[in-house]
Amino acid sequence: MAQVTLRINGYAYTIGCKDGEERHLDAMGAEVSRRIEGVRVASGPSGEARMLVMAALLMADDIFELRSKLRTAEAGTAGADPRLGRKLARMAKRAEEIAEGLETK
Fold first, then answer.
1. If exposure means fewest CB atoms within 10 Å of the residue's CB, which of 20, 34, 38, 67 is most exposed?
2. Residue 15 neighbours by CB under 8 Å, 6+ apart
3. How many degrees, rounded to 5, is the angle at CA 4 between CA 8 and CA 46?
4. pLDDT tens digits, residue range 26-77?
5. Does the pLDDT at position 79 exceed 90?
6. At CA 50, angle to CA 7 and CA 18, rounded to 5?
7. Which H or E element spans position 51?
8. By the 8 A CB rule, do 4 and 26 touch?
9. pTM, to two decimals
């Protein structure tokens, strides 16, 4: 099992992952860091927990939107490109995995 140390909002978090998933975990950490920076810019500095919650809520909102788009694509586009539905499904699944990872911290 590999370990990656993510730097988020000035704090180091060492997270375990499967071998070969280090780059992906780094990318997820960069996304969380980007979201926290957005929260900081929008509302000013705040407590660590509050900023993490706000970033998680923003990501959850994205997941909600993706799920909604997926349902719409699956329900109303019988003649549409089936690759779109599969792509949205993969994106929604990945977003859920990211959110689950945040919840376990």
1. 20
2. 3, 4, 5, 6, 25, 29
3. 10
4. 999 999 999 999 999 998 888 888 888 999 999 999 999 999 888 887 777 5
5. no
6. 40
7. helix 48-76
8. yes
9. 0.65
Three-state SS at 75: helix
d(CA 67, CA 48) in angstroms, rounded, equals 29
Find where tokens 């919840």 sit. 103
Give residue for tokens 């779109």.
84
For 11-22, give one letter per residue: b (16+ CB within 10 A) or e. eeeebebeeeee
Pairwise pLDDT comparison (34 vs 88), residue with the higher score: 34
For 5-36, how does the pLDDT look when each residue is reduced to its tens digit (9 = 90+)? 999 988 999 999 999 999 999 999 999 999 99
Torsions phi, psi for 13 (to 5 deg): -125, 120
Q: What is the DSSP string of 17-47?
A: E-TT-HHHHHHHHHHHHHHHHHHHHHH-S--
